[in-house]
Every structure is written in structure tokens, then in C-alpha cells.
Amino acid sequence: MRNSFFRGHGLGNDYLAMDPTELDFELTPERIRRICDRHWGVGSDGILALVPSSRADFGLRIFNPDGSEAEKSGNGLRIFGRYLHATGRTRATSFTVETPGGLVSVELHVDGWGEASAATVEMGQATFRPEALPCTLKAAELLEQPIVVGGQSLRFTGVSVGNPHCVVFRPTGARWEREEMLTLGPLLENHQVFPRRTNVQFAVPTGSHHLYILIWERGAGETQASGSSACAAASAAVRLGLVQSPVIVKAPGGELEVDVRDDFSLTMRGPVEEVAQGTLSPAFVRSLG
Questions:
Q1: Per-residue pLDDT reduced to its tens digit, 45-65
Q2: How many CA atoms lie within 13 A of 212 on its CB side?
Q3: Which of 16, 155, 176, 230 could form a disulfide with 44 if both were Cys (CB 3.0 to 4.6 A apart)?
Q4: How far out from the chain centre does Cα 50 lie?
Q5: pTM score > 0.85 for this model?
């Protein structure tokens, strides 16, 4: 069908998956913003676009709701895997996907209904080197670096898992309030030390294998869950000795399991749900210009 979409979510973090060859328009930033708008469009935390790849079974471009492009998304990859399976683009349960943030492998877990209700994704290797995010601070690794935002002195750990993350910890027994995340998140995302902006996690260890995080996502704002954020927070917590692997990372939307190996390569497992398949109306397509 022309102008079709697949809608799915991972723990409340929702995406639209589309095949640009089936669209009657180009996915420009302005059109992406219109489609993702929850009042004037379909509504979404982003768009997953199927593209060709010479290195993997499938290629993926990930667009944020503000029209910018993301390098990698853990929830997006699980949704993309279910989209490929549900729409008959593959019957395989294991395949590779090329993203701007690197090559990943996806394993779908098919339930008794024949649906890929969960997925395991090899997310690549975490690094704390400032040039990987990038970050302009001079340090061998971005571990507990001081930063001032909104008149507050904080310490962050910077980590790249194919896309950039800034993890700010509070100790076990403390907590982050949502209002703090809404205030500090955009300030950290756009801080001058992150020339390409950054995702932000406000994290608290809650046990030897458990973390709780609030998430401010670059280009999207507050999100209920994020696979790459879970991986970043887990790897940072393991690197700082705050938790041990495997790590159960809980966000407002639910839990993901992250295995952090000795070389900081990462495996993430979590649920994925299909919400709808549909088509954009001819009138809406015309309105996109």
C-alpha cells in the first residue's frame, strides 16, 4: 500500500516504521515534524525508515520528532525488527541491521501467536572517550566530570553506544524528581561541551544489579523508555562500580535487561508491541506539500 506505516512501541517509546519507496513524498525534516506531531499528525517519538544496505540484511535511518537524525535507538531497533517480521519483509528471526551508529544484530523472540513480542539486540561497544560522543572536555575518559547547568554543580559520565549520552547519578536511596529532569534535561542536551547535543539519563542505583532512570532524549524530550539510554546508563554504572552485570534498568515505561561484558560490548533484551498498521490519508499527504 502507498503511504503506509507501522506503529509500535517499546515500553511506551513509540515509533512509526515506513518504507520510503512506498511514500509519495520525501521524508524531509518539516514533514517528519508534521507526521510525528501528536495533535496535527499521526504522533510518534520518531520515524524508522527502511533503507538499502550493502553491509547488512537491512538498513535503517532513525529520525527524531524534531526532524533531526539519530545514530541508533535500542527501542527503535526492536520495533524495526517487529515491523520487518509483521509485514513479511523477513521470516527470519535473526538478522543484521546497519544504522548510522554501527552494525547491529537482532534476534526476535516469537510468541505462541506467531508475533515477535520481544527482541534481543547486540548494541555494540560502549566507550567513554570524549571524541566518541563528541565532547569538548579534555579527559582520557568522561568519568564523573564536573558540569554546571541551571546554577547547579553536577557530575556526569559521558558514554557513546553509537550515539551520545550524558549520565548523571545520584546515590542509592536518593531519587530524581521529574521536574528536575524537565529542567536540567534540555540544558544538558544543549550544553556547549556537547557540540552535537546529547541524550541525558538521570540515574539511581537501586540494587547490585538494578538501576532506575529518567530520560531526556535528544531531539525528542522526555521519553518513557529508551534502549540506548538503558545501555548507556548500565555501562556507566558498571564502569563506576555502582552495579554489576547483568543490569535491570527500570524507566517509567518498564524494564530492560542489559548485559555489559568485560570489554563493554552490550546486549539488550526487552519487549516490543505492535499498535497499528495504516495509511496516511490522501488529504494529509497533500497537506505535507
A1: 999 999 999 999 999 999 999
A2: 13
A3: 16
A4: 17
A5: yes
